[in-house]
Protein 1
Amino acid sequence: MAKPTVLTCANHKGGSGKSSLAGSLIIALAEQGYRVLGIDGDMQRNLSTTYGLREFGKEKNLYRAIEDVDELENFNGAEYIVKTDYENVDFIVSHEDMALLETSLMLKMAEREKYVSKLIESISETENYDFVVFDTNPTLGVLNFNIFVASDYVIIPVECSAYGVDGLGAILKFYKNTSRVNKNLKIGGIVMSKVDLRKSIAKDAIEVVKDMFGDVIFDTMISTDTSVEKSQWDEEPLLTHSPDSRAANQYRELTKEVLSVVGKKERIVQK
Ligand SMILES: Nc1ncnc2c1ncn2[C@@H]1O[C@H](COP(=O)(O)OP(=O)(O)OP(=O)(O)O)[C@@H](O)[C@H]1O
Ligand SMILES: [Mg+2]
């Protein structure tokens, strides 16, 4: 089986739009006919609940998978996958015990950064996903380090606000540190999120990010749109909940850009 392309939505700044981005990227890729495995790497479980998976994953979840990858001789990553109601979309959900994972990973001695990589390798032996899309927690901790080591591309959503652009240099350093271990890791791009171009600070914020990251900002920006919060409240992905909303269409456009960055051809949209 082929190894999937692993896309990780990351930013240590809380509320920058990681889970919203991951939730929409998954459906937009699935709409194009790709098989997608979403993995919720955040103990807040926001991505899992968006897909109605709040009650799932008591036994099968990312916490168990990472503990078992170390402990079970016949570890089979595919056993931790749950099916969703959405075509082409499967999941590994988060669990509240994920809070324990940071210390648990610290305590494991050998190959401390390779646990998530081993999980993906194990899944690739039996399953055929085109993409894995990770949502991550708002830290620069050991779990995120493991996820970066297992990734091909990091996609960084940045909230278009003063707080959103302040202190972003740290994620760049974190990326550089990780790429010493994972030479294959690339920055897929920066997504400006919650953009309101009528506000003058929006343009300033975009300039600040351009100065810091250069030309890796995606052309497509995600506007402030109440349908994002509404769909999350209703525990449904934005792209099926409000398929014609402004943000949904922007996430689709963004996904086309992501596909061109990762070198996969855009497929005919199946609606
Ligand atoms: N385009 C948008 N328009 C309006 N609200 C948005 C938009 N994108 C995200 N939000 C809202 O902003 C909040 C933060 O977004 P989200 O949960 O995706 O960020 P996050 O980076 O995953 O946060 P955390 O760091 O806590 O995991 C949520 O309440 C979400 O509904
Ligand atoms: Mg989140």
Note: The CA atoms of residues 102 and 142 lie 6 Å apart.
Protein 2
Amino acid sequence: MSAQFSAPQSRQIVWITGASSGIGRELALSFAHDGHSVAVSARSADKLRELETASSNVSAFPVDVTDAAAVAATIAAIENALGPIDLAILNAGVWHPMTASRYDLEKATSSMAINYTGVTNALGPVMKNMIARGRGHLALVSSVAGYRGLPKGAAYAPTKAALISLAESLYADLKIKGVRMTVINPGFVATPMTERNTFPMPFIVTIDDAVKAIRRGLDSNRFEIVFPTRMAIMMKTLRLLPYRIFFLATGAIAKREPPPKTDA
Ligand SMILES: NC(=O)c1ccc[n+]([C@@H]2O[C@H](COP(=O)([O-])OP(=O)(O)OC[C@H]3O[C@@H](n4cnc5c(N)ncnc54)[C@H](OP(=O)(O)O)[C@@H]3O)[C@@H](O)[C@H]2O)c1
């Protein structure tokens, strides 16, 4: 079920990437339910068309975020069809658990191409338009996994750390230009992305709770939306630990990893 908020003061044009599934999909339905005009993007055109049939406020704009030219053309098509984008939620992402012994260069490279460059491909043109108009709101979906490198995070965590740094780097400049920047750092959320995880996921929340936290955060003036609270406290504490203690903790986690398969 999508989280519902009070009727909007004004109908906004919202663009969400990674909207064919999980958090992006439910956010799209929540904004559409509240009367906003929502442009949804992802590669799976069929799933986006299904979303269109679920709400007349949803319009599908399929695109692969790794294709910079196609993303720029998609932004132009959205603004042409619906009007200037007021809020862009750059959410498309992939997660490949990866340890040192199972390091997969192709997956590590494509993770960065989707999770980080996929965001900058969208951010470049959409931010330029917002600056020219002197208004707009950008929201980058990162993760608490971007706070510090944890076991299994070799492909994913660097992409999310880069996004947090990107958002921080742009925040002050954008504020002067009248454009808001928000970084969204979820803890574990029960979505298709996490359903394959075989390890414990502390404090995991439902998509509905995630959407509520994100919608509340976007309506506030905060730079960072981080949830759930207990995960935020745990991960922020981890960030403060000196390496000696931090690696004692991560060493204990890494020891649980089964030994790599060998051909022998
Ligand atoms: N679930 C969690 O616990 C969690 C925690 C922290 C952060 N996050 C972040 O939240 C975001 C959404 O995750 P989720 O849990 O909702 O995952 P999900 O259900 O797997 O959804 C991922 C979305 O990204 C899209 N996507 C992947 N590659 C793409 C590409 N090349 N071009 C365009 N779209 C692409 C997928 O659509 P197509 O396959 O159709 O392209 C899908 O719509 C991700 O950035 C993730 O890293 C999730």
Note: The radius of gyration is 19 Å.
Protein 3
Amino acid sequence: MKRNQIICGDSKQVLSHFPNNSIDLVITDPPYLCKYKDRNGRTLMNDDNADGVLPVYKEIFRTLKPNSYCITFYGWTAIAEFSEAWANAGFRTVGHIVWPKKYASKEGFMKYQHESAFVLAKGYPHKPEYPISDVQKWHYTGNRSHPTEKAVSVIEPLIKCFSKPGDLILDPFSGSGTTAVAAALNDRDYIGIELEHKYCDVAERRLASVNFYENAIYA
Ligand SMILES: C[S@@+](CC[C@H](N)C(=O)[O-])C[C@H]1O[C@@H](n2cnc3c(N)ncnc32)[C@H](O)[C@@H]1O
């Protein structure tokens, strides 16, 4: 299993070729199963298809090392389905993180103004040496590279808290490669998996510039 690569394909299929107990940490941002469409009409693959998303958690559990973490964003409208998939895969929930936003992504019954993720455990991992708050600072990216692009600065505190240099971090719903970029910038190894070729290309480009700047700094 080659480290530091973006694999273009379906996570469930791709991960089925990965060995058991090989990943140190998963940080991922799956489709929220809410039929997302942004102001420009951009949609996400599998956002209307739970069968393309939820079975991946079983593979995540299998490929994670014993006593490790999976941090997963989720969409609250599909919390019942996500919770069932996580529990069926074997995960325990050990934390919940909220990112309040200064702006509302949508208005309806409420102004929808936060993002959230669960911290799931496979087995009984060590608690982090320096735990972070479960209320975290949000940064808006402008979604230029991807319709739901997370900021590297949102992912970095998770990486620093839940992994150590040299660890292998997997993101099976990699999009524009934000988790991989955050991993590379923090001396972790990464594997990103993404269905859409255009986002695999974006991720490769982002990672190439990380490598370019790092080589320039250490040259
Ligand atoms: C919410 S987005 C991730 C965005 C990412 N966090 C970023 O910063 O760019 C989820 C991504 O998962 C991809 N996806 C959906 N189903 C997938 C599957 N079965 N395997 C791999 N990728 C999948 C979608 O194409 C989409 O780009």
Note: The beta strands are 5-8, 23-28, 64-73, 92-100, 106-107, 111-112, 114-122, 168-171, 189-194.
